[in-house]
Amino acid sequence: MDNNKITKSTQCITREELAARYGVCRRTLYSWLNKAGIQLKQKSRITPKELAAIVAVLGE
Fold it and tell me: Per DSSP, what are the bridge partners of residue 46?
């Protein structure tokens, strides 16, 4: 998987993996998601559909 392109993921990823792709810690990622009004399912991986919504708001 190309780590430089966040939207290319067709698999579920962890919150840690997503935070790493944005170059921030998980807490910062959570803060960004909360400010954007994005709610993720608890204790689950981020689905490609959720990832697409995140990228639409936060960018690549």
Answer: 13
Q: Is residue 44 part of a domain?
A: yes
In a domain, residue 1? The reply is no
Identify the CA nearest to 47 among candidates 4, 1, 3, 15: 15
Number of structural domains in the chain: 1
Quick one: pLDDT at residue 1? 41
Which residue range(s) make up the domain with 34?
A: 6-58
Cα distance between residue 50 and residue 56, in whole Å: 10
CA-to-CA distance for 56 and 43, rounded, in angstroms? Answer: 22
pLDDT in tens, 5-42: 665 557 899 999 999 999 999 999 999 999 999 988 87
* 28 located within any domain: yes
